[in-house]
Amino acid sequence: MALENADGLQVHRSWWVARRAVVRVVTEGRNLRLQLVNGITAPVARSAVAIVREAGWLTNESSTGGRSTETEILPL
Question: Which of 30, 32, 33, 53 has the most crowded Cβ, counting Cβ within 10 A?
Answer without folding.
Answer: 32
